[in-house]
Structure formats: structure tokens, C-alpha cells
Amino acid sequence: MAYAPSALALVPFVSVENMLRLVNTVGVETFLTELAGFIEDDFRRWPLFDKTPRVASHSREGVIELMPTADDVSYGFKYVNGHPKNTRTGRQTVTAFGVMAEVETGYPVLITEMTLLTALRTAAMSAVAAKYLAPAEARSMALIGNGAQSEFQALAFKTLIGVDRLRLYDIDHSASLRCARNLSGFGFDVTVCTSPEAAVEGVEIITTATADKQFATILTDNMVASGQHINAVGGDCPGKTELHRDILLRSDIFVEYTPQTRIEGEIQQLRPTHPVTELWQVIAGEAPGRTSAGQTTLFDSVGFAVEDFSALRYVKSLIGRVPAYEMLDLLADPDDPRDLFGMLLRARVELKDLAS
């Protein structure tokens, strides 16, 4: 066929292969640092974003979600699923892709894989929160749940706030061994523990990142000491929690977007009026974060669309620097914008000419 896409038809696409190239070319630590900077910048202008709880379709096996947001220039959304049983058939628990578009025209300007990118932005978000909420100069962290997110969390905490001592625990001991092996070249002192109680003993930060879709008690009240910071990553949908309610009642709780976290986060266990602070207020200097050494802080992380917007915005900035993308012929662009059918007819004629 003689058809050739115009410039308006083409959209940059970052495949998994190119995302791997992008991250490794930039360097994973640099990628996490720069991504965290984009997140902080967007949280400082939080009131400018359209915000809504993610649109979720729940089933017995998992959840499929759309996460949209926009400022006055760009619109972004992420498609993401969460299916804890997927690992039984060799699949990822979480997969995702994302789109960024111009508000002015509605035309997409980026399509990208977001399975890897979500892991990186979740870790960067955790470390950004810890920057404001963790004990000063914290160096030690327990990682409970050593699945696909664990190494990303560890690297983000080391890169952004200096954590270099890790205590790992997972009900699957081989997962902890894999995590320790993957992190062996990154300057960590790693201890693999045989119980969650052993993992949290004496650390300054506790990160929980388990996958089971159920009300669970990964941490009981007696396991958490005064002054520790808890980064609760795994509770991210209705009916799924990781912390005993008593921990919440004695912690200062920080969230991303309160209406969504009330439904999906650890605070779904509390009354709807229980006080929480949105993290953007802390980053923007409108509310205090950690105020004392003895304060127990909790980042009730469920993931919010503004973080994905930041990640899309960051990747878009990178593709001009690193040739790790391809152009997709995605948008029909007829010679006359009102004559889309004519474009189809011309293609039919060209096909007949090729066949004859």
C-alpha cells in the first residue's frame, strides 16, 4: 500500500524492551532520584490537578483499575491490574500501561509500558514519604514481603535517604534469598530473617509489601516500637490490609488522596472521620511531618494517579535524551479531517491495485 502515516498519526511508544534500555542507560539510582523529583514537584502543585478515586472493577480473583488525572496542560491515565494468584501460572501479580495526552487537542503524546515503571514510581513515592516522615538519618529497614516490589523499595530508600541495612522476611523463604541475591551488588548489609518479629526488631523503618487480597495482620501492635516509620505498601484495595488496627490508633497517619485511601488503605479499618494528613500538605510546607523522635508515623500508601502522571511526565522528558522508543502509527489522519471514510476508500482502492 502507498499509505504512509503523517507526523500527526505517530505517537512515541516505550515498550518493555525500551523501558529496560531507558532505565539502564540512565542508571536505576539516577532514574529513581529524578523520578522522585518529578513526584515532589507535582505534589507541591497538588491543588492544580483533577483528582478522583481510581475506577476499579473488582472480581473474586483481583482488580482491574483505571487511574486518571490532569493538569491544565496534560492528561494522563494508567491501566493496572492486581491479581495475587497470577504467580501460580507464571504471570505477574501487577501489570500496567499508561498514556499521556495534550489537554488542548486530546492527542496522545506518549504510550508506555508501566509494569516496570509502576514498580519504580511506587518505590520512589515510598522514599519521598520517608524523607519527610522517617527518623532523621535512618539507616535500617525491615522489608516484609519480598516479592516483585522489594528490590525497588530497597534501592529507592538507599538512594534517596541512605538506608543501607536491610532485614528481609517473606513466608516464602526463597523470595527473601532472591531479594538478597539481587541486591548483593548495591552496598547493602542484608539479613534474611525467619520471622516478621525478628525482621522489625531494632529497625527505624518498616516496609510491608505483601500481595494476598485479604484482611491480614502482618504487623501486630507489639511489633512496632515508638519512633519507627511504617511504609505500608501492600494494602491497596477494599478488604485488603496488613496492619493491626491498634497500630493505626497510635500512629500519625499520612495518605495520598484521602477519599481513595479511606476505601482502599489501612484506614478502611477506622471510622471515616479519623484524622489523617495528606502528604502533599507536608511536601508543600502546609502541615508538619515528623515532629519528634518518639513519634510513630505511618504512610498508608495505596498509589494515586498523580504519581503515575509524574512518572509519565518524567519518561516523556527522557525520550528526547535517550533513543529508547519507537513511533506507533496510532491516529488516523486523513487529508481532510472531516473525510475519515474517504481515507478508508482510498486504502481499498490501493489494496485492489496491489492484488491485480
From TrEMBL:
<dbReference type="InterPro" id="IPR023401">
    <property type="entry name" value="ODC_N"/>
</dbReference>
<comment type="similarity">
    <text>Belongs to the ornithine cyclodeaminase/mu-crystallin family.</text>
</comment>
<protein>
    <submittedName>
        <fullName>Ornithine cyclodeaminase</fullName>
        <ecNumber>4.3.1.12</ecNumber>
    </submittedName>
</protein>
<dbReference type="Pfam" id="PF02423">
    <property type="entry name" value="OCD_Mu_crystall"/>
</dbReference>
<dbReference type="GO" id="GO:0008473">
    <property type="term" value="F:ornithine cyclodeaminase activity"/>
</dbReference>
<keyword id="KW-0456">Lyase</keyword>
<dbReference type="InterPro" id="IPR003462">
    <property type="entry name" value="ODC_Mu_crystall"/>
</dbReference>
<dbReference type="InterPro" id="IPR036291">
    <property type="entry name" value="NAD(P)-bd_dom_sf"/>
</dbReference>
